[in-house]
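Notebook, p. 212. Picked up where the previous page left off. The plan for this session was modest: take the two constructs that came back from the sequencing core last week, fold each one, and keep the raw output in the notebook itself so nobody has to go hunting through shared drives later. Recording the first one now, exactly as returned: residue sequence, then the structure token string.
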Amino acid sequence: MQIAKKMKIDEAKEYVAEKLGVTVEELHDVVIMTEKRTEMGLGLAHVEPCAEENNGMAAKFKIAEALGIRINSVEKFKVRSGLKTQKEEDEDIRRMMEEAAAENEE
């Protein structure tokens, strides 16, 4: 969130906590976050890579959606799998750059 949304660390934690429906303190609680990540299908970093709970790319899709951010590997996957055309991806990137430029002007 610090990079994607240009937020300071405390602001980023608050944003993520709000999006996930937890408190900032709960973000640091392994038990609560394991339950939340499992409930939301966000994958678990502390389980075996091939375990059912660790669903790789599907988890990245859900994280991007839950946090309202763009994850480069998800966007590349969409293009390579035909879920999105390269033209659509190029337009998305152009739009993001224009938005960033407009924010910098303010």
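Okay, moving on. Second construct, recorded in the same format:
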Amino acid sequence: MSFATDPPSRILSRLQISHKGQKHAIKAPALAADLGISDREVREIIHDLRVTGEPICSGAHGFYWPVSREDAGPCIAWIASRFQQMRASYEGYMRGLDREFGQSSLFDEEVSA
């Protein structure tokens, strides 16, 4: 049997095997200490894994692998809320740039919701 040695694979395996469901979540510092990396690296790796399609959840008690859609619900709500906040920030930022420098369509094609 071969074991993954790269941090992303180790994080994914660990969550899928030992941290299923919200009540078995693990906090970033504990995961980081086990892997010999920083908390920030753990969060960056989790982000990258999510971008590739891994449904890693997070909540007040840490990171976990969902056991159902309902188990993932709080994380989905949090991500959707963050998306809305970032969208509002982006739109306000762009209005400010338009006010300061005139209207531009430079980013309009790159970012569409």
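Notes on construct two before I forget. The CA atoms of residues 12 and 49 lie 8 Å apart.
Flagging for discussion at group meeting.
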